[in-house]
Amino acid sequence: MERLQDERPTLVLSDIEMPRMDGFDLLRNIRADQKLEGMPVVMITSRIAQKHREMARDLGANHYLGKPYSDEELLGLIQHYALQRSGPAPERSPLGGPVVDGVGAVAE
Q1: Residue 98 has what pLDDT?
Q2: pTM of the prediction?
Q3: Are 81 and 10 in contact (CB under 8 A)?
Q4: Pairing state of beta strands 99-100 and 106-107?
Q5: Fewer CB within a 10 Å sphere, N or C end of the chain?
Q6: Which stretches within the chain are classed as H helix?
Q7: CATH class label, 2-107
Q8: Where exactly are the structural domains of the chain?
Q9: Under DSSP, is residue 105 helix (H, G, I), strand (E, B) or coil?
Q10: Mean pLDDT in each 10-residue stretch from start to end of the chain (108 residues)?
């Protein structure tokens, strides 16, 4: 969290399964921090069950990308948020922008 405060990346890519703090806890902490709450967060995980997608959405994830995914999908999401950052500040909207569906396809 300290590193996010200092470096302010364009986008956070987070797995759900991580040591010390899982991706859901990281997302909760980002959304609870006034300085970070609008930062886009993409969850990347092998957990593709609907309950995990709903939890990520409810916590404010911008996208949920299930494994396996293609390089093109991931690069498309990164490009999307890089372009948003270079333009006017986007409104924070859970799961806004291109939608990643259950089979991993990106749709507008």
Answers
A1: 45
A2: 0.74
A3: yes
A4: antiparallel
A5: C
A6: 2-7, 23-32, 50-59, 71-86
A7: alpha beta
A8: 2-107
A9: coil
A10: 82 93 95 92 94 96 95 94 71 44 38
